[in-house]
């Protein structure tokens, strides 16, 4: 394998690994938000807002990783 | 077409009348250049070319090769250079375009400042026109019937404004007077990102929010709003005191660098989040379409078309959520910059 092939491999692996992290994070977040909404349905609106903010923060970190992978693949 | 092309390709073309000549021939010239490039490129390169075509900014707007709009090129290097289109710039012979970048012919370097009206600038202006016209339409209604309940389009816009005011701004900014003052900014921010995101989903459209420069511009304004509102409402002393994070004096050595860094990472995260979210959708759709060309078979088409439709629908959702998230996070950061004050304690 030459260095270009390795870079593509790294890009693919990096994208996959960061998606695992994001999936776990957002999955856990959604699970607990739903549980909380189930226990206290009147707070569902507030919970949704907070859930979206937290999801955006998790997603933001993931997207940094994805952008790095993307740059590796495009070079 | 062929005669025009011949004229264009002659290097000793007189410089004086290149403008009119070029205005007529640009369309045919670009299409022929396009097809030539596609023929010369290898399989893998076609997809990369297509990706670049969709994701990068252009000095001209091309609608599926049906019509072409020339956009002015404005460059400042050692003097101000203005050209009506990218082709007249190449005709003039001082600058040339290589792989979507403008470089100077004699030095081979990029110009100092490029203030060209590009396709993405055009799309931002379209978004502004859409927003301003819709606001002027509803303003007329308010002036004519000030005491009547809103209806139709007016109702729709009012719903959006109230959503931003009550569910984004007032919830996150404890200071009511500041919240009222900042509501117009947040409404426009939300609408602007929303319209730009949706312009990217229209056939032939580019999403300006899928460009780092645009999202960085939005975040830099957000940075000034966040810190400016903190300074104006609480005073500069309080703003500086916030850098310690309310920690005891022994921890200041750690807290101050962290707080200063976090002041800059917030807008940076906003920039990359919006940019990456909007770009990711385009890349996924184009890659799915590109699968057909990689496998060179009709059998792949139903799968990739089906998946791209699914991703496109997901993009509608992402376009709305990202506009909401950008506005929401800016509001949250404004609220945070105001400090962990007494109001915060009493709310809980």
What is this structure, in a nutshell?
The complex is a heterodimer of chains A (75) and B (348). Chain A is mainly alpha-helical and 75 residues long. Chain A has two helices and no strands.
Features:
heterodimer, A: 75 residues, mainly alpha, F1FO ATP Synthase, 91% helix, elongated, B: mainly alpha, three-stranded antiparallel β-sheet, two-stranded antiparallel sheet, 68% helix
Question: How many helical stretches of chain A?
Answer: 2
The quaternary organization reads as heterodimer
Spans of chain A of 5+ residues with little confidence (pLDDT < 50)? none
| Rg of chain B, Cα atoms, Å | 25 Å
Q: Under the CATH scheme, which class of chain A?
A: Mainly Alpha
Spell out the CATH superfamily of chain A: F1F0 ATP synthase subunit C
Sheet with most strands: strand arrangement of chain B: 4-3-7
Order of helices and strands of chain B: HHHEEEEHEEEHHHHHHHH
Indicate the radius of gyration of chain A in whole angstroms. Answer: 17 Å
Strand content of chain A: under 5%
Which protein chains make the most extensive interface, counting residues with beta carbons within 8 Å of the other chain's beta carbons? A-B, 12 and 18 residues
- Residue stretches of chain B low in confidence (pLDDT < 50, at least 5 long) are 1-41, 342-348
Helix % of chain B is 55-70%
Query: How many DSSP H or I helices of chain B?
Result: 12
